[in-house]
Amino acid sequence: MDLTLKTLETDYGSAFEGCSIQADIEPTVRGIVGRMVQLRSHYESVEKATGVPWWFIGLLHYSEWNFREPAQFERQVVDVLIAKKYHQAKTRTLGAFLWGFDLWHGFRGGVGKESTWVWGGTSILGQNTSRVGAAAVVRYLLQQQMIELGGPKAAVELLVLTDTLFKIKPEQGFKLAEDEKMLVSAGTRLELLTDDPAQGGHVKVRIPDGLLRGQNDRVDWYIFSQHIQLEGTEPNNKPMDPPVAPETKIADQDRGRPIQVPKLGTVYLGDPILKGGHFSWAEATKNGSRIPADETVVNGILKIAEAMEEVRDYLGGRPITINSWYRDPASNSKAGGASRSRHLSGDAVDFVVQGISPPEVNRKLESWWGDRGGIASASVFTHIDARGYRARWDYGF
């Protein structure tokens, strides 16, 4: 029988197109994926050394080692992959990966649609088996949008920076019962659905169901803010909100038009947001066209205004042009911002510094801003926000 990739690639690929996970197997698949996600940092180290995708490494760890001794597996599998020349594979289709999974196991469980190593737990296999195959796991990963076979996934991920507790309430760990908290290891990466600042230096995060415990998992957790970093952004986050010249500048004798804002009452467009500051209400509200919705937004504007004064000082007092500050939902949508953009909260600014390119501004601010909030780079502006925990991404333009 011809077992070459040239012969079998199409068979594996077309079979996957029509496969589904058996209903009674899905909780087990969810648990396998949850463990893979927890150990993802090990698999990404292997991916960096070999170019083989992290999820394929995770499948090998599950099938060969049952997730035991991840550090030792990480060290050994690099050598084996290189010896088997997996790192040189030029065909990177899903059919090729499934064939490669069977090749790794010596086609011991059958070939093509008969392979228990690939099709266990799916509708393809014509026989019952206790083995959960690679296709079931890959199908689940794709359904949860955790991988994209055509390229890198454009989404937000939560990276755990140090061993920490995920908690059901924003309390110190010793105050919670054992079933109200969960230890999560440094290096764990999880898909992130939402994030919000919470009391006591915590962040409230929402993750997809089943990623941590495997089944019946909580999706809302509280984590100490300095223990995590957010990476990536929504695929459609491509804000184009060009600057508008202020109607009235701070130095002008005419303070400009008055506007009414929550908490503060009447302010004038030409007034500095902070006493003695360099940024005006005209800049924060696009000349009064974006009135803060409530006191929370005003607090956000005041908070990031203080940060922008620090940025200005840190970069040598150079003039700064504001592209975008507060955006109400309508203007945020029109600008092409993320659905949960910090601009909606008032505590984010997109800006350009005179005489310094945006990528260089980003580089200078990266370590300085640290875990005080988000920084994002684009070729035409720099984004900064004061959410209170690390978030980093690249707009891609």
Task: Give a verbal description of the structure.
A hairpin with a 4-residue loop joins strand 13 (374-377) and strand 14 (382-385). Strands 4-1-8-15-13-14-12-11 form an eight-stranded mixed sheet, covered by helices on one side. By secondary structure, the protein is an alpha+beta fold. The radius of gyration is 25 Å and the shape is elongated. The mean pLDDT is 91. It has helices spanning 5-17, 26-38, 40-50, 54-65, 70-83, 94-104, 116-119, 134-143, 281-284, 295-314, 329-335, 358-369, and strands at residues 157-160, 164-167, 181-184, 189-191, 194-198, 202-206, 220-224, 228-231, 258-261, 265-268, 320-324, 348-353, 374-377, 382-385, 390-394. It folds into three domains: 5-143; 157-231, SH3 type barrels, CATH 2.30.30; 258-394, Muramoyl-pentapeptide Carboxypeptidase, domain 2, CATH 3.30.1380. 33% of the residues lie in helices and 17% in strands.
Describe the secondary-structure layout:
Elements (H helix, E strand, L loop, with lengths): L4 H13 L8 H13 L1 H11 L3 H12 L4 H14 L10 H11 L11 H4 L14 H10 L13 E4 L3 E4 L13 E4 L4 E3 L2 E5 L3 E5 L13 E5 L3 E4 L26 E4 L3 E4 L12 H4 L10 H20 L5 E5 L4 H7 L12 E6 L4 H12 L4 E4 L4 E4 L4 E5 L3
Parallel strand pairs: 8-15, 13-15
Antiparallel strand pairs: 1-4, 1-8, 2-3, 5-6, 6-7, 9-10, 11-12, 12-14, 13-14
Helix pairs in contact: 1-6, 2-8, 3-4, 3-5
List its salient traits.
33% helix; eight-stranded mixed sheet; 397 residues; three-stranded antiparallel sheet; 12 helices; alpha+beta; SH3 type barrels
